[in-house]
Amino acid sequence: MDNQKYKKIIDALNEFLPNDNILLDEPMRLHTTFRVGGPADIFVLPSSVDELKKIFEAARKFDVPVTVLGNGSNVLVSDRGIRGVVIEIGKNLSFIRRDGATLFIGAGTILGAASKFAMEHGLTGLEFAVGIPGSVGGAAYMNAGAYDGEMKNVIKSVKSLDINGNLREREAGELGLGYRQSIFQSNGEIIVEIVLSLMVGDKSLIKEKMDGFTKRRMEKQPIELPSAGSTFKRPKGYYAGTLIENAGLKGLSCGGAQVSPKHAGFIVNTGNATASDIIELVREVQRRVMEKHGVMLEPEVRIIGE
Ligand SMILES: Cc1cc2nc3c(=O)[nH]c(=O)nc-3n(C[C@H](O)[C@H](O)[C@H](O)COP(=O)(O)OP(=O)(O)OC[C@H]3O[C@@H](n4cnc5c(N)ncnc54)[C@H](O)[C@@H]3O)c2cc1C
Fold first, then answer.
1. Average pLDDT for residues 157-171, to the nearest whole number?
2. Of all atoms in ligand 1, which is nearest to the CA of residue 74?
3. Which CATH architecture describes the domain 93-205?
4. Which residue has its alpha carbon closest to ligand 1 atom 10?
5. What whole-number distance in Å separates Cα of residue 77 and Cα of residue 40?
6. What is the pTM of this model?
7. Residue 144 C-alpha to ligand 1 middle, in angstroms?
8. What number does the ligand 1 atom closest to the CA of 191 have?
9. CATH of domain 3-88
């Protein structure tokens, strides 16, 4: 980033963010579950909607690009990192409030924690989310789902901040929620709060269901290695993992990136992968699956950075 701009925006951010919440040249591998990715020029950890507004304002004023990150569990950051400002919507923007079967949740809250909170309060509907390692904001953005459940089924409304600093609240029907889709993927807004509508249920049955999902995940998925979950979206009429496995690609490697021998739908970092290794492997899998099955796999993982 241009040196002058860089200095000016840091000065502007210093006026309202504590020092500890502005990190310079922050390695993104420390903030992503793939454990790869070069530095973000300026990494900020806001604690309020007001701070978020001011960050947007400063970025607009100095014409600096902004990237939003939740828990970093569905992104692949390039080895050169991210230019401009990266905003982490994390634990500083995390809370859960309950009113009957309705939960008001800060976007930075970890989804698994929200799922556990619901269980503790005998609320059903969020069991599917127990093993998804994202933030609730990231889960709304992706319409995350598993085991026949998805965020779409439980979201009542979402509050977000647009690029001009206006806070908006939309009902579920206005969010364009579809398979791994939402309007936030195209409107550039930051999700700040999610309202979930759950149902009263039996705590022990809810727990049993969650334990069952956790067991299935541990048996089937390579959760012991860094990854970003399913690498590809499910193509209509197929399962990405099955297509990859049937093309004989289990165990295929590029540098430290590997198609998991345990679950072909996952690309894992075996220890020293670079983002380039992973991207190369993604392309190779796409090419070979196309050759074998005539199906073009589309990454579910969002590839970002320079
Ligand atoms: C082991 C493993 C298992 C997984 N299993 C599943 C699964 O079963 N089902 C599933 O759907 N996913 C799964 N995932 C993927 C991932 O956990 C989900 O997509 C999750 O919802 C991403 O949330 P996040 O906070 O980590 O988002 P990030 O990875 O940080 O970001 C993803 C995208 O969302 C945007 N974003 C994040 N937060 C906000 C916000 N507050 N406002 C606006 N934009 C935002 C980012 O800009 C980015 O484009 C898995 C991942 C791993 C590592």
1. 95
2. 29
3. 2-Layer Sandwich (3.30)
4. 144
5. 10
6. 0.97
7. 7
8. 42
9. 3.30.43.10
